[in-house]
Design goal:
The protein is an alpha+beta fold and 164 residues long. The protein contains three helices and twelve strands, in the order αβββββαβαββββββ. 17% of the residues lie in helices and 48% in strands.
Length: 164
């Protein structure tokens, strides 16, 4: 029996809300312009070579920045970074994004969030197209631990929470 695609999509979204995930701020820079977005679709692929995957909607402004520059940074956010989540998850506030928080420049040229628990600098290894999204596979070139002692932020059931 095939379920109605609309009902299945709604059931899928409801089910995925129960999957707790770390909250990441994905950043890149292209032609001197920084960009960023909040993502929970970030996963370790392998340790040798160290590789992460990040899923990005092709309609997101960050998509072209990563595809064109070939570099990005994955910043795992701490629980006290709610202000960054608020501004980076709202496209209407795009001009305000890098005015909040403390920023460094990663060796690969991507903005690095000095308030993150850990930041992974990545070099784009492969792009896999999947319907509305692309899966960016990034080989990790550096790992920094700006605030590894802070509590992580977790997304669960449409809300941001502190993991203690």
């Amino acid at each position: 029996m095939t379920e109605n695609p609309i009902i299945l999509a709604d059931a899928y979204r409801g089910g995925m809300r129960q999957l707790a995930a770390g909250v990441c701020l994905i950043t890149a820079s292209y032609q001197g312009q920084p960009g960023g977005m909040i993502a929970t679709a970030v996963t370790s692929v392998s340790a040798e070579p160290p590789t992460l995957l990040v899923c990005v909607n092709r309609s997101a402004s960050l998509f072209a920045m990563i595809a064109e520059s070939g570099r990005f940074c994955v910043n795992l956010l701490s629980a006290d970074a709610q202000a960054l989540v608020d501004v980076f998850s709202n496209s209407a506030r795009r001009d305000e994004r890098f005015q909040h928080g403390e920023w460094l420049m990663a060796a690969n040229g991507a903005p690095l969030c000095a308030e993150s628990l850990v930041s992974f600098e990545c070099s784009l290894a492969k792009i896999v197209d999947w319907h509305t999204h692309a899966i960016f596979l990034g080989e990790v070139t550096a790992v920094l631990h700006p605030r590894s002692d802070a509590a992580p932020m977790v997304y669960h059931n449409r809300g941001f929470h502190e993991l203690v």
